[in-house]
Amino acid sequence: MRPFAYEAPTDAQAAVRLASVPATAHVTSPVQYKGGGTTLIDLMKLDVMQPTTLVDITRLNDERLRRIESLPNELRIGSLVTMARLHEDPAIVRNYPILTESLWQGASQQLRNMAFLGGNVLQRTRCSYFRDPSFAQCNKRNPGSGCSALDGANRGHAVLGTSEHCIALYAGDWAPALVALDARVEVLGRSGVRSVAFADLHRLPGSTPHIETNLMPGDLITAFVIPGGPRRRSLYRKIRDRESYQFANASAAVALEMDGDVVRDARIGLGGVATIPWRARTAERMLRGRRLTEASANAAAAAEFEAAKTRAHNVYKVALGRATMVRSLLEAQALEIA
């Protein structure tokens, strides 16, 4: 690991000032925020990220950063709430199973105890070509160099949202649940606080895969806001190579509102198959106002994956992603809601 300076402000505005330095995007900045550090420190050890300064935000004195607030028309979750704390909150377990199930399946207990939710949504890809600097061709790590994964070992890479410049997978579990619920992100920057739709936080790779989000250097996520009331008819299903602590080959976060067996509203986020947390809007449109059956679920899933682009080793993700969505929809429909 390379030498770096360390700052530990107690004021959020001071943290933003320290981190607001010239850079093309927050991931390219020489100044990085450190929360739990469960991804950042790994990447520093691998020499993939080389920040010159870490700004430790764990001592910030704003208590709202650590608060879970169930308000009449929204749920507000501070960015310094840990994965474990939200997962174990009885009210969230009862009212938002889509959130707690995605957190429970997202990491080991040790990591959930350490990791903050603000950092969780900004975790970087587990693409082995990105995480190994001995591979020179990685547009995400070394812009303009090429993408080794295109014709390499790409079993774990994305089939949705890809480009000719990058097929790296977004590996997180909680983010698909957030995108499905139309969450918003509160961001503190140099010009003050702004609200960003979670669906607009992450960027498709396009020709600039090294620019992963729409955050600028110094932008600090302070909270997640989920509109509406409880989402009890919701769940998260994850398919992986092994049950314990493994990233998804395919996953689905589903929340339904039903009139009998007719879908009044469907919200679907996909993980394990895309370059960003993926909102399955095509499938949602096909399901609204229709009876939810295995046939209608299969038709919606097939339509969502029509745009999939596969490589040599990840063809299986199309069939697996479709089956995971269908299973999740039917299991959500079958939930008994008190």
How would you describe this structure in keywords?
Enolase-like, domain 1; 338 residues; 12 strands; alpha+beta
| Number of E-state strands | 12
The CATH architecture of the domain at 234-333 can be given as 2-Layer Sandwich
N-to-C terminal Cα separation, in Å? 52 Å
| Biggest pleated sheet | 5 strands, antiparallel
**Which band does the percent of strand residues land in?**
15-25%
- Whole-number average pLDDT? 96
Secondary-structure element string: EHEHEEEHHHHHHEEEEEEEHHH
Uncertain segments are none
Text of the CATH class of the domain at 234-333:
Alpha Beta
Name the CATH homologous superfamily of the domain at 234-333.
Answer: CO dehydrogenase flavoprotein, C-terminal domain
- What is the helix fraction of residues, given as a range? 25-40%
Give me the Rg, rounded.
Answer: 20 Å
Structural class by SSE content: alpha+beta
Question: How many DSSP H or I helices?
Answer: 11
Shape: globular
What is the spatial order of strands in the main beta sheet? Answer: 4-5-8-6-7
CATH topology of the domain at 234-333: Enolase-like, domain 1
Protein name: Xanthine dehydrogenase family protein subunit M
Domain FAD-binding PCMH-type: 1-231
Keywords: FAD, Flavoprotein
Task: Describe the protein.
It comes from Sphingomonas morindae. This is Xanthine dehydrogenase family protein subunit M. It holds the Pfam family FAD_binding_5. Keywords: FAD, Flavoprotein. The chain is α+β, with helices and mostly antiparallel strands. Among the domains are: 5-56, Uridine Diphospho-n-acetylenolpyruvylglucosamine Reductase, domain 2; 234-333, Enolase-like, domain 1 (2-Layer Sandwich). The chain has eleven helices and twelve strands. It has helices spanning 12-19, 40-45, 83-88, 90-95, 97-104, 109-114, 117-120, 174-180, 281-287, 294-304, 316-333, and strands at 5-7, 31-34, 53-56, 68-71, 74-78, 184-189, 192-197, 220-227, 234-239, 250-259, 262-271, 278-279. The strands form three sheets. Strands 4-5-8-6-7 form a five-stranded antiparallel beta sheet. Helix 5 runs antiparallel to helix 8 and helix 9 (281-287) packs antiparallel against helix 10. The longest helix is centred in the last third of the chain and has 18 residues, at 316-333.
